[in-house]
Every structure is written in C-alpha cells, then in structure tokens.
UniProtKB/TrEMBL annotation:
Gene3D superfamilies: Phosphate transport system protein phou homolog 2, domain 2. One of its GO terms (biological process) is intracellular phosphate ion homeostasis. GO terms for molecular function: DNA binding. Coiled coil: none annotated. InterPro entries: PhoU, PhoU-like_sf, PhoU_dom, SpoVT-AbrB_dom. This is Regulatory protein. Pfam families: MazE_antitoxin, PhoU. Residues 8-53 form the SpoVT-AbrB domain.
C-alpha cells in the first residue's frame, strides 16, 4: 500500500499520480482510459478492459500419474478460471484419459471439446457472465434442494422407491452448478467488473456466497445419502415405520426455506428465527435417536441411524446459511 498526495488542477479538478510499477505492469500509455469504481469510502481503479484476458493452460498426460488425477486437474483448472485447456495425448495408454476428458462435460457447465485429434484434445470454456448471475444460480440450487427434500418426504410416506431413485439422479445437477458458482466467485474476487456483471454488490460478499454454495452442495449430498439408505432399508424391511422421519423432513424443509429467504432478502431478524426453529428439530432428532435403540434388527437400525445423521446435518447447514444471512445483513459503516 502506498500513500499518494492529492493535487488540485485548474482550480476544480483533483489529481493523484499513478504508481510507475503498476503503469508498466498494465502497459498503460498516455491517452488511455481507466475505469474508476466507487466502493464505499474507496475507489477502485482498473484498466478500461471490461473482460479479463483469456487464459490458456497446456498439459501433457505423460506427466499425470493417472486418469483420475487428470479429472481432478481439469476441475481445478476450470475453477481457477482458465478459458482454454489444451491436453497433449503423448502416451500409449491414452484411452482412459480420453474418456475422462469427454466425461468432464457432464458435470462442468460451459465446457466444449473444440479439438480432438490423435495428438491432442482441447477444451474451451464458453460462459457468459451476464446470462447466469451468481444469485440466480444459488436460487436454482435452493430450488433443486427443496424439491429433493419435499420428494424425499413423499417417497418415505408412500414407500416410493422410484421417486427415491429420481432424487438421487437430481444430485448431479447440484454438483454442476456448484462448480460453476465457485468459478464465478474466484473471478469476481479478482475482477470488480465481473462481480458487477454477476450481480454481486460487494466483493466482500463473495466469502459468504462461497460458504453458501458449499452448504447447498452438501445438503444435496446428504439428501442423496438418505435416499440411498432408504432404498437399502426397504429391501430388508418393506414395512418400516418412518412416520417420525416424515415429520422431521417437514420441519427441516420449513427451516431450510426460511434460512435461504433470510439470505436472499438479507433479513437478520428472520435468520434469528431459524435458530429458534432448529431447537425443535434437535428435539425430534434426539427422540428418534433414542427409539433406534429399540430396533431389534441391527442392519435396519444402522440404516435408520445413517438417515437420521444426514437429517441432522441438513438442519445444521440451514443454521450455517442463517449465520451468513446475519453477517451479510450487517453493513460495514
């Protein structure tokens, strides 16, 4: 950080000098325009280029230990913001690597294969920040999570295994949206102009959104876990009495809805109500937990305990969202 004196030019224009090192780094020349953005009591000065420069990464599969490692690397490059990823196919056992590259499009939004030859494959990430704001995607994730929870209650009530399997299938879309939001937030932290395009009012909100998107992804994971455990439970005990699980599902849905509404409206008072309602969920959780000790079949008890633990985690995540809502409703003066 450097201190700069303010000078008056022409009696009414206030002027400061720019750091020479920064001018050289950005290749700024006399006559160029700069973007000046007000940010509370601060000013953000940047070059006039609204879009960040396209970033390209080149990798060789001969330098990667396995096809699974390639998958993790490609996801990492997507998240940090690369726009083009060139993969050199320079080893004989390349088929598994090619399969990973093709499958990556199933859970990374905006990724397309633009080159596929004997020697190389190239991925291009084609995303328009204006068309998919961060808040819109978070709302979409909430909508999917909510529908999964509601249908979970229906599946338990009606002993509908088909619906339970459909719930499991929906979890993949949450993963796709999760990766997209993380990529957006990384760019928004670095580029104020991109943050504005994504509908993020303040870059400091990115930390809160990063917590929320992870919470929404984890909620979907736990709903999937409950559905899988229920399917296994149904196979060994088709007439399992799950009325208490159905009731706690309703309470968790209501608490989840309120926490997300508090976040989207930045309503700290509503967020406080969430913590009060969570006490009711905790009481139900405790009552069910005690009943599980009465189940004679050990495998059934274990599966119901697994389901109950996931319900507890979902409720806890609603509290995490409420905490973020309180933090974001408090403006820094």
């Amino acid at each position: 950080m450097e201190a700069r004196k303010v000078y008056v030019s022409g009696g009414s224009t206030y002027v400061i000098s720019l750091p020479k090192k920064w001018v050289k780094k950005t290749n700024l020349k006399p006559g160029d325009s700069l973007m000046v953005t007000e940010h509370g009591s601060s000013l953000l000065i940047g070059t006039s280029a609204i879009e960040k420069e396209s970033q390209t990464k080149e990798i060789k599969i001969s330098q990667i230990t396995s096809s699974e490692a390639l998958e993790r690397i490609l996801i990492a490059f997507y998240l940090v913001g690369y726009d083009t990823i060139k993969i050199k196919v320079d080893r004989k056992d390349h088929l598994a690597y090619r399969e990973i590259i093709r499958n990556i499009m199933d859970y990374l939004i905006g990724v397309e294969i633009v080159e596929d030859t004997n020697e190389a494959m190239t991925l291009e990430i084609m995303l328009d920040y204006k068309r998919m704001s961060t808040m819109q995607i978070l709302q979409r994730m909430f909508s999917i999570d909510r529908s999964m929870l509601l249908d979970l209650g229906k599946a338990l009530k009606n002993m509908d295994i088909g619906l339970a399997k459909d719930i499991i299938a929906r979890e993949k879309e949450i993963d796709r949206l999760y990766f997209l939001v993380v990529r957006q937030l990384k760019s928004a932290v670095e580029y104020q102009q991109i943050a504005e395009k994504l509908g993020i009012k303040s870059q400091r909100d990115c930390l809160g959104y990063r917590i929320v998107v992870k919470v929404l992804e984890r909620i979907a994971d736990h709903i999937e876990n409950i559905a899988k455990s229920y399917i296994r439970l149904f196979e060994i005990q088709k007439e399992a009495q799950l009325d208490e699980f159905i009731d706690i599902t309703k309470d968790i849905v209501a608490t989840f809805e309120k926490s997300v509404q508090a976040l989207f409206t930045r309503n700290g008072e509503m967020a406080e109500i969430v913590f009060y309602e969570l006490k009711k969920v905790e009481k139900s959780h405790s009552d069910i937990s005690k009943r599980l000790f009465e189940i004679e079949d050990i495998q059934s008890a274990i599966l119901e305990k697994t389901m109950l633990d996931s319900f507890g985690r979902i409720a806890s995540y609603s509290g995490d969202i409420a905490e973020v809502a309180i933090n974001m409703s408090t403006e820094v003066s």
